[in-house]
Structure formats: C-alpha cells, structure tokens
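Severity: low
Component: inverse-folding endpoint
Summary: output formatting inconsistent between runs
Steps to reproduce: submit the following structure tokens with default settings.
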C-alpha cells in the first residue's frame, strides 16, 4: 500500500513538472499599469516604427491579475485569455468581478486568445496573436 502511495506521488510530481512555464502575478508586475500606443511596426520586412499621433493613440491597462481594461476602466473587448511574457504563459483570471462593457456587443472578435508581451527600454511591445504586427506603448 505504501508503494502505491509513493508511486502516485511520484507520477503527480512528474506530470506537474512537465507543465508549461507559467507566470505568477508577481512576475507580470513590470507590465501592469496604463499604456498608451506611440508606434506600430508592420509584419514582414518592416524595419521602422511608424509613429502614432497622440490624439489617435489608444490607451489600455493591464491589471494586477492580467485582466486588460480599456481607457474607461471597463474590460477590453476581445481581451486575451493568456499573456506570454519572458517566454512564460500567464493565464488571465479575474480576481474581482468585472463590470460589463456595453460596447463589446458591437464587436466581432477573432479567435485570438494570446498576447505576446516584451519590455524594451521601458516601453511595452505587443504582438497580438503572434502575427508579426507589433505595437509599442509608453507607460502612463
């Protein structure tokens, strides 16, 4: 009986250690906050960032639990289920109730549930859905 318990424990530990790399809320702290779009870079051979006029810039917020909010503090439409930062995947799980965003009823979302994030010189670089189109944001 003791051997079965030990075997079960070992199998559980092995399966758990094979799980993909996950981020804890503390590990996404560098990307938590409000961000304003300042440039985009199209996919392919694009080498230059195209600057965005501040009056046309979008603003969003990444909350402590990974939830993405729009400029009004409401849940963003088509928000990701996962954030990948520093090669690790973070599952977005709201820690407090979210208010409904009525504008999302008018939006048709594509099947993209992962945002790829990196920090470069204090700016957030996003590649939504890993398409190669990158957006650069400045922290507010």
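Observed output (run 2 of 3):
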């Amino acid at each position: 009986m003791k051997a079965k318990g030990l075997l079960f424990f070992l199998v559980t530990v092995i399966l758990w250690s094979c799980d993909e790399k996950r981020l804890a809320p503390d590990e996404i702290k560098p990307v938590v906050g409000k961000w304003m779009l300042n440039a985009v870079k199209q996919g392919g051979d694009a080498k230059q960032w195209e600057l965005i006029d501040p009056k046309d810039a979008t603003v969003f917020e990444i909350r402590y639990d990974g939830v993405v909010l729009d400029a009004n503090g409401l849940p963003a439409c088509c928000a990701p289920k996962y954030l990948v930062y520093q090669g690790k995947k973070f599952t977005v799980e709201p820690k407090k109730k979210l208010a409904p965003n009525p504008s999302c009823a008018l939006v048709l979302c594509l099947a993209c549930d992962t945002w790829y994030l990196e920090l470069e010189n204090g700016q957030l670089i996003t590649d939504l859905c890993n398409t190669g189109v990158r957006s650069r944001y400045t922290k507010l």
